Amino acid sequence: MGVRRVHDPDRTWYLARAESVRPAVILTLNGARREVRAFDEDGTLIDAYDSPPDGVAIQRARQPPEACGMPAQMTALRDIVAGAGAWELLGARQAGNTWREVHRVEGRYVVKSFTIPLAATHYRRPWVREHEALTRAPAGCAPESLGWFEETRDGQRLIRFGRTYLSGAVLDVFTETHVEPVARLLARLHRHGIVTDDANPRNFLIALDGRMLVIDLGRAHWGRPDRWPFHWWVGRELAKVRRRGFQWRDPPWQVFRDRYFREQAFSPAAAAAVRASAGLTTALRQVRMVLQGRSPWT
Ligand SMILES: Nc1ncnc2c1ncn2[C@@H]1O[C@H](COP(=O)(O)OP(=O)(O)OP(=O)(O)O)[C@@H](O)[C@H]1O
Ligand SMILES: [Mg+2]
Fold first, then answer.
1. CA of residue 203 to ligand 2 center, whole Å
2. What integer pLDDT is reported at residue 295 of this predicted model?
3. Span 165-217, pLDDT tens digits
4. Domain 70-164 has CATH 3.30.200.20
5. Ranges of residues in the chain whose predicted pLDDT is under 50
6. Which end of the chain is less enclosed by CB atoms within 10 A, N or C?
7. Partner residues linked to 164 by β-bridges
8. Where are the domains of the chain?
9. Is residue 165 within 8 Å of residue 108, measured between CB atoms?
10. Which pLDDT does position 83 carry in this prediction?
11. Does the beta carbon of 64 lie inside 6 Å of ligand 1?
12. Which of ligand 1's atoms lies nearest the C-alpha of 164?
């Protein structure tokens, strides 16, 4: 990672306001903790660190303008968490060194809690990714982000991330009836330069008004939709739709694929890149499965 230019932390420490820059690293002082944010040339956050990775010199460090480094909407999440009476557990699991819980709060919000030992220095930060992706997602495709905040509790780092709760049915598997809405939803997200990178049906929901929405963008990636690196991500996404969404059932997958490509109207080169990426992703995974002694159709 190279340091070409350093953002003005007063203007850009809050990611959604990041301006378009050349590949760069910004450094901010958040309370007593140094943070590093790495952006690509579109101003997209590509990584975040608690302390600078090797070889990165601190260029500048300042207190961010808003209290506790949280913009207004994130303060609102603090209020929601502090005042909420009804917490309904939707799921909990250990992922690496992080204990994750998902709650429905007050029947209106989803709050994800990430508990990480203070001593841990390497951990994934899906809340940063998810907030940024939900902020970028086109209207009506996904819940709204309420932002995130971090505190220390019982000697642990506790991060809360919030988004709106949507009433509807979470899917288990994509069936023939989902082909059309899923193809349109993913095509729309991809045209906005967002891939979910987790096209598992459990991350999709049919809202009460019949709309198909994506509810989990914790692994999302984004980029310029007309550039080949993004086409590679799109191909990966389609491979997962085939494998995990349609569980290798060819008839609905083929209808989905045709519908998706019709929706996108890719240039011939882009379509070829997406197809190549999807095919390669599938082939490499199948080889890996066989080498692990598992069925290639898992
Ligand atoms: N906005 C929402 N509206 C309705 N239900 C939701 C919403 N967000 C989450 N859920 C429910 O909570 C579950 C877990 O949410 P989410 O997928 O975001 O968390 P996760 O930590 O990624 O968990 P998992 O590993 O199960 O995917 C979803 O599968 C869904 O059942
Ligand atoms: Mg999920």
1. 5
2. 95
3. 999 999 999 999 999 999 999 999 999 999 999 999 999 999 999 999 999 99
4. yes
5. 1-24, 28-34, 51-69
6. C
7. 109
8. 9-68, 70-164, 168-291
9. yes
10. 87
11. no
12. 1
Mean pLDDT of the chain: 82
| CB of 166 sitting under 6 A from ligand 1 | yes
Pick the residue whose CA is nearest to atom 2 on ligand 1. 165
- Percent of the chain exceeding pLDDT 70 equals 75
Query: In this structure, which residue's CA is closest to atom 4 in ligand 1?
Result: 166
Interstrand relation of 212-214 and 168-170 (parallel, antiparallel or unpaired): unpaired
- In short, whether 90's Cβ falls inside 6 Å of ligand 1 is yes
Same fold, 70-164 and 168-291: no
Measured from the alpha carbon of residue 202, the closest ligand is 1
Look at ligand 1, atom 22, and give the residue with the nearest C-alpha: 216
pLDDT for 14 equals 36
Cα–Cα distance, 255 to 241 (Å, whole number): 12
The pLDDT value given to residue 60: 29
What pLDDT, in 10s, does the model give residues 39-66? 555 555 655 555 443 333 333 222 333 3
- What's the CA-to-centroid distance between 196 and ligand 2, angstroms? 10
- Tell me what pLDDT residue 63 has: 32
Domain 168-291 class in CATH: mainly alpha
